[in-house]
Amino acid sequence: MRYGADMSESQQHPEPVVIASYETIGQAEVTRAHLAANGLHSAIIDEVEGGAVPVDGENGVRVLVPAAEAELARQILQPD
């Protein structure tokens, strides 16, 4: 796909997609490693205060992938 001047910034670079959410950074790191082993890039967003278990209002530890890779990432993470 060629990006032309008529495409907005959001169309050229869609927001990453959350594909999983966990209580601990360790769980998220395992998922990130599994995705990397399958050739996918991911990022971890940790919004848990002080590394504790998330409380009401906190999102926990989330794993994000590029929007274009979200469906493949979900397939990879599904249990057999």
Describe the structure.
With 80 residues, the chain is an alpha+beta fold. It has one domain (14-77): 2-Layer Sandwich (Alpha-Beta Plaits). It has three helices and three strands. The chain has helices at residues 9-12, 25-37, 70-77, and strands at residues 17-22, 43-46, 61-65. It has a three-stranded antiparallel beta sheet, with helices on one face. The chain starts with 8 loop residues before the first helix and ends with a helix.
Mean pLDDT over the residues = 81
Number of strands: 3
Radius of gyration: 15 Å
Beta content: 15-25%
Straight-line N-to-C gap: 34 Å
Helical coverage, percent range: 25-40%
Query: What is the count of DSSP helices, taking H or I runs of 4+ residues?
Result: 3
CATH topology: Alpha-Beta Plaits
Could you say which overall geometry the principal axes of the C-alpha atoms support? Answer: globular
Judged by helices, strands and strand pairing, the structural class is alpha+beta
- Can you summarize the main beta sheet? 3 strands, antiparallel
CATH structural architecture: 2-Layer Sandwich
What is the CATH class name?
Alpha Beta
Instruction: Flag low-confidence runs.
Output: 1-5
Q: Which sequence of strands runs across the widest sheet?
A: 1-3-2
The helix/strand order is HEHEEH
Number of domains: 1
Fold topology:
Layout: H1 9-12, E1 17-22, H2 25-37, E2 43-46, E3 61-65, H3 70-77
Antiparallel strand pairs: 1-3, 2-3
List keywords for this structure.
alpha+beta; Alpha-Beta Plaits; single chain; 3-stranded antiparallel beta sheet; 80 residues
